[in-house]
């Protein structure tokens, strides 16, 4: 019976070859004669040898893996991010380790521990403390995905503030709405904080007094349904509800229709992201399209480039967004599917 404890040196002795030859056969690299390859494979099969990947990583100074850190994995946004990230990692031959920090009291410690097992790491902005990012960046390449600039790690993001300013201004100017409400918690993530800032900037740019504060809820559809129940239950309902993401907006839409309200006649609703469902609901959702999958792909490219010693731009990368005009804001159904870049 084979033993998982057998070492590469023992396999080399049993096969009558060098350790380097065993490594070349087990890794599928280099030139090895068929006779030597057969002897090594026979010894591996007979004794149940499994290569020590950790040992190989230590010898090579690499783990062959990159880390991806999110607060959670629910919803289409994170699914798109993972697909974009993996598309680049797979091409480079690196495996992906994913850590979710949601409800973890030791999330910073867990992220630092992961940093010992990967060659580089991408973190969603605001997921861990700035000091943790700094400590990680001292040992491995680190790239932040979304959020604001960081002194020790480049950031891949969109300009959330300008994008939300453009969307809110569309409601204020093109539709003449004034009683708008922002739904989302600015303290919940850097992205939402920037979108709230853009919402306020649109009001101030027109010299109009903005709302006192946002409706602070989570970022999932049930949270949007609850927000709609709070905002739409009385006669003083808002003219429009500007949501921090599409999941919230879809929940608000369900809540509004459940109360017998017509969208956009009774209340306009907008989102952010342009998730696949945004174009399929009735009425289709006015939103901001951000290239979610490409954001993650670009973050993966930057961290893999840094792992290979080719460096990464310190200032990071800002990708463009588009204002997507659909019927939920009050525009006609014959309006173009996409508006101007923001």
Automatic annotation (TrEMBL):
Pfam families: LacI, Peripla_BP_3. Keywords: DNA-binding, Transcription, Transcription regulation. InterPro entries: HTH_LacI, LacI/GalR-like_sensor, Lambda_DNA-bd_dom_sf, Peripla_BP_I. SUPFAM superfamilies: lambda repressor-like DNA-binding domains, Periplasmic binding protein-like I. One of its GO terms (molecular function) is DNA binding. Gene3D superfamilies: 3.40.50.2300, lambda repressor-like DNA-binding domains. Residues 6-60 form the HTH lacI-type domain. This is LacI family DNA-binding transcriptional regulator.
